[in-house]
Write a structure and sequence with these properties.
Strand order of the largest sheet: 1-7-6-5-4-3-2
Number of strands: 7
Order of helices and strands: EHHEEEEEEHH
Largest sheet: 7 strands, antiparallel
Strand content: 35-45%
Structural class: alpha+beta
Radius of gyration: 15 Å
Distance between the termini: 40 Å
């Protein structure tokens, strides 16, 4: 069973600011509660082919994984796929203007767990959804008050 989680938040800041902050992997530990570090594997800046590794804790486990950027339109869309990690995952950020002048950020995680993860996919999906909602709330708070 595949995991496919879509979450959104509206942030009262410009799309350019939200995309620049959220799209910078070095900022991930500031708004993703489960990511403890992010390290460039290629030289910045963000671009198709760029790779970065992350260390996270999720569901009581330490996870180390590497993402590779597969699609990037600055200020609009960022798509990353695991190049190395516990299971194949794709993460997509989409940034769009709101009528009020803010930004709607959409975060999508989808992947195909294997082994025990495949059996636990519904629980994994629910845990990812809760984590993403909390992380987007943290991003909103950080950008609107910072």
């Amino acid at each position: 069973m595949a995991v496919d989680v879509l979450t959104e938040v509206e942030i009262d800041r410009s799309r350019e600011l939200v995309a620049a902050f959220a799209g910078d992997p070095t900022h991930a530990p500031a708004w993703y509660s489960r990511i403890h570090s992010a390290t460039w594997q290629t030289e910045p800046p963000l671009r198709v082919g760029a790779r970065m590794s992350f260390v996270a804790h999720f569901l009581g486990r330490r996870l180390t994984y590497t993402y590779e950027v597969v699609d990037y339109v600055p200020g609009e869309r960022l798509v990353m796929r695991t190049a190395e990690g516990p299971f194949p995952m794709e993460t997509t950020y989409i940034w769009a203007d709101t009528a009020a002048g803010g930004t709607r950020m959409t975060l999508r995680n989808r992947g195909e767990p294997s082994g025990f993860g495949k059996l636990a996919a519904p629980l994994l999906e629910a845990a990812i959804r809760r984590a993403n909602r909390a992380d987007l709330t943290q991003l909103k708070t950080l950008l609107e008050t910072g």
